[in-house]
Amino acid sequence: MSDANKTQPLAPLWSDRPYHRRWLLQQADGLFDFFQTAAINPKGGFYDLTRDGKPLATDNPARGIHASARMVHCFAIGDLLGRPGSADVVDHGMRYLWERHRDEKNGGYFWQADDTGAADASKQGYGHAFVLLAASSAKTIGHPLADRMLADITEVIETRFWEEAHGAIAEEFSADWQPVPGYRGQNSNMHLTEALMAAFEATGERHYLDKATSIADLLINRRAREEAFRVAEHFDEQWVVDRTYYHENEMFRPAGTTPGHWLEWARLLMQLWILDGQRHDWMPEAARGLFFQSMALGWDKDKGGFFYTLDWANIPEKTAKLWWPLCEGAGAAHFLNQHQESDFHEESYRRIWNYIAGNSLDRQFGGWHEELTEDGTPANSLFPGKGDIYHALQACLIPLFPAEGSLTKVIQESPLKV
């Protein structure tokens, strides 16, 4: 949908309309259907899938820890919703995290594991953040490993990753905890913020929320504010922005700035503001700024969709249209609309879902296209298939519940209305 095609009057909100709510639930069900059986690796962990829902590799593929943990989180959500079979997926993932990803010798969790052990034994903040999320979500459905894993991952984060001087985590260590020097990253800290909030909701322990607030203050209230609410991705060890950083892994560490993360932070800040008693006025202010900038600079006004990255002059650099920024945009628009309703937030919400419906949904095979070209054609330059339910599922479900916390919290507190 181009900017020239304006919507009809914006009240009532789409998220309040029964048809839209049924449509979102239908999309969520389709995602559950696509991944629930096909992604199960009988030897443990989960397969990445091809476009048509078959394993990308069956001969002892490496399983990334973030993928294992995200499946646990998503199917814990499924179990809370009452979807049959979800608890079995959670159990399958929790056992793989505990028995294969966990380093029994040195502590912590391997970045990748396979049938024989560690495929990549590095200890990365990004992966550990998702273990905390998985353990917290599994606790909400009473999984027997949840408390042990939650205690274990909390100790690892506090004793190995957390840097009190900066109020955020270090990025990466070797298997035996030798630091990988010279780099600090916002992506791992952003996802840890999400996980810390989930841990606070699951346990009531304040120290999780305090760490989340500390990270948000560093990365958004200070660093992103200094950049006119554009989120810098890469830093040195003193948290000075590194504008020239380059890494060959453009999936996890792309150069420049990533508007999808501005959107993700907008939602997380609103959630953090609510969980912490609406004490920090800078949080909703920053959320508005991040969302506005993402729509003003990151949205392709001619062809729709969010550019993957911009350079520091705000010129699109990697012009692929990925599914996850759209997902984060939908969730952020809902949170902002719930607490700061405006035509801009609602029009943006509709624009994003219109683009998803016209481009991202794979109507032939199910699931979502994870990557599109600038013109909206399915592509696989960064993502080889369909490996992730997490972003899309949350985008479909967040608007169905009050914008008051993590899905695992609000599902338990509010009956689903469609």
Question: Overview of this structure, please?
Answer:
The protein has 418 residues and is mainly alpha-helical. 50% of the residues lie in helices and 8% in strands. It has helices at 18-36, 65-81, 86-101, 125-140, 146-161, 186-203, 206-226, 259-275, 282-298, 323-340, 343-360, 390-397, 407-413, and strands spanning 63-64, 112-114, 117-120, 123-124, 162-163, 168-169, 172-173, 184-185, 234-235, 307-310, 316-322, 371-372. The strands form 5 sheets. The chain has a 3-stranded antiparallel beta sheet. Strands 10-11-12 form a 3-stranded antiparallel beta sheet. The longest helix is centred in the middle third of the chain and has 21 residues, at 206-226.
Summarize the topology:
Elements: H1 18-36, E1 63-64, H2 65-81, H3 86-101, E2 112-114, E3 117-120, E4 123-124, H4 125-140, H5 146-161, E5 162-163, E6 168-169, E7 172-173, E8 184-185, H6 186-203, H7 206-226, E9 234-235, H8 259-275, H9 282-298, E10 307-310, E11 316-322, H10 323-340, H11 343-360, E12 371-372, H12 390-397, H13 407-413
Helix pairs in contact: 1-12, 2-3, 2-4, 2-13, 4-5, 4-6, 6-7, 6-8, 7-8, 8-9, 8-10, 9-10, 10-11, 10-12
